[in-house]
Amino acid sequence: MHTILVTGGAGFIGSNFVRWALGRPEANCKLVVLDKLTYAGNLENLAGLEETYPDHYFFVRGDICDGDTVAELFEKHAPNAVLNFAAESHVDRSILDPMEFVRTNVLGTATLLAAARRHWPEESWDRARFLQISTDEVYGSLPEDRPDIKFTEDTPLAPHSPYSASKASADLLTQAYHDTYGFPTLITRCSNNYGPYQFPEKLIPLVIRNAMNDESVPVYGDGKNVRDWLYVSDHCTALWDVLSTGEPGSVYNIGGDRELRNIDLIRMLLDILDKPHSLIEFVNDRPGHDRRYAIDAGKLKSELGWEPSSDFREKLAETVNWYREHTEWLERVISGEYLATYDRIYRRGWKE
Ligand code: NAD
Ligand code: DAU
Fold first, then answer.
1. Ligand 1 mutation pick, 15, 36, 65, 89, max ligand atoms within 8 A of CB
2. Which residue of the set 137, 171, 201, 234 is catalytic?
3. Which is the most buried residue in 53, 110, 119, 199, by most CB within 10 A?
4. Side-chain-facing half-sphere of 144: CA atoms under 13 Å
């Protein structure tokens, strides 16, 4: 049985991964989730797992920057893989307060890498894996008038936001562990995910929540920025394939070839919800807003045989339904702090 340390497992993608992996007995793995439970982490996302999988699932509340906590986990559970989901993940918050992004995303990754290297004897490195879950945002922005150009693994890193700069730093550090020590690292860079359990500060759940409450739906700038959307379970299968068969020291892009302008996506969501387009309100743009992301996932497909299996329109409608059926979840995750940040971005237009 593989033992995997899953950091950030109480967040959006982490909790989807944990549920997905535990639901596949053939994966035969024990998952030890380490999560600080920041505003974005929620134990409700993992509800019922302790009872259903008492021998395969363990939760520990803690900070990836805390070397003692991380060392204790390595000693107690002896994981042979690390999946590092833990991060400050929202671009807008990184613009308001960059320091927490540097701490968790850079120092946290450094702490995990150091602990894994200390606890894994070199003879075990052919079986051990450290998977750093990164993002397409590290590549910067693509021109909107060149649909033929997409991000490949060879695209130079050119992050623009404090969030993407902190993720790029973590990638460089992870790669340095491979290049310097021969440490068995893997890096994945995925495009925008959507699905259940996403915190409603991100575009899709924010639009759904606001529209359900007949509140205005804020669109940054001219709404023509493009994002490349992937259903979260397709991200999970890609991570599993990379973890199981990826070449140590490699980077793999993950994406679903589903580019959409924000305004078109928002109109689609309003149509699914049967709400009027008049709810759309153009607001001050996000500073440094990347224009277009598009992922070329050719390497992952040709080398590891991965394919996304989700139909976009079907999964978008399912996602809308999930939020419709989980309004209590939505309202519970929104604290006073969420409302204060909402106010800073949308009502005060990025001003203090
Ligand atoms: P999220 O914000 O929903 O979840 C992050 C989780 O990390 C939360 O549970 C939070 O409590 C935890 N966390 C934060 N700081 C921590 C710390 N110091 N110690 C321990 N736990 C901590 O994020 P997400 O959208 O699920 O993203 C997960 C990962 O995937 C991130 O690394 C992100 O950069 C990457 N990613 C996200 C997307 C996307 O579209 N959401 C796309 C590509 C890559
Ligand atoms: O590309 C992968 C990245 O996708 C991940 O690394 C990040 O963790 C994740 O948050 C996401 O980043 P984005 O900035 O692309 O996602 P967000 O949902 O914040 O915004 C999507 C697009 O919608 C972006 O162009 C900004 C725009 N937007 C967003 C919000 C919250 C709006 O127009 N209005 C809004 O209110």
1. 89
2. 137
3. 199
4. 11
- Burial label for 125, CB within 10 Å (0-12, 13-18, 19+), is middle
pLDDT at residue 26 greater than cutoff 90: no
Determine the average pLDDT of the residues in 328-345.
Answer: 88
Asked whether residue 321 is domain-assigned, the answer is no
171, 201, 203, best to mutate for ligand 2 pocket (most atoms within 8 Å of CB): 203
Task: Tell me the average pLDDT of the chain.
Answer: 97
Which ligand lies nearest to the CA atom of residue 200 in the structure?
A: 2
| Ligand 2 contacts CB of residue 228 (under 6 A) | no
What CATH number did the domain enclosing 135 receive? 3.40.50.720
What span, in angstroms and rounded, lies between the C-alpha atoms of 25 and 139? 36
Q: Has residue 46 been placed in a domain? A: yes
| 17 pLDDT higher than 80 | yes
153 given a catalytic annotation: no
Q: How far is the CA of 159 from the centre of ligand 2 (A)?
A: 14
* Ligand nearest to the CA of residue 13, numbered in listed order: 1
Q: Residue 219 gets which letter from DSSP?
A: E
Q: Active-site residue 163, yes or no?
A: yes
3-state secondary structure of 154: coil
Domain that includes residue 248, residue range: 2-195+231-257+291-309
From 35, 88, 136, 201, active-site residue: 136
Identify the band that residue 116 occupies on the pLDDT scale cut at 50, 70 and 90: very high
Question: Which ligand approaches the C-alpha of residue 95 most closely?
Answer: 2
- Is residue 206 one of the residues assigned to a domain? no
Residue 326 located in a structural domain: no
Local confidence band at 273 (pLDDT 50, 70, 90 cut-offs): very high
Q: Which residue's alpha carbon is at the smallest distance from atom 33 of ligand 1?
A: 89
* Mean pLDDT value across residues 79-88: 98
Q: pTM for the whole thing? A: 0.98
Q: Give the tens place of pLDDT for each residue, 128-171.
A: 999 999 999 999 999 999 999 999 999 999 999 999 999 999 99
pLDDT on residue 352: 65
Smallest CA-to-CA distance from 225 within 91, 76, 83, 61 is with 91
How many domains is the chain built from? 1
Q: Is 121 helix (H, G, I), strand (E, B) or coil?
A: coil
**Considering only CA atoms, which residue is closest to atom 36 of ligand 2?**
218
Q: Is the CB of 279 under 6 A from ligand 2?
A: no
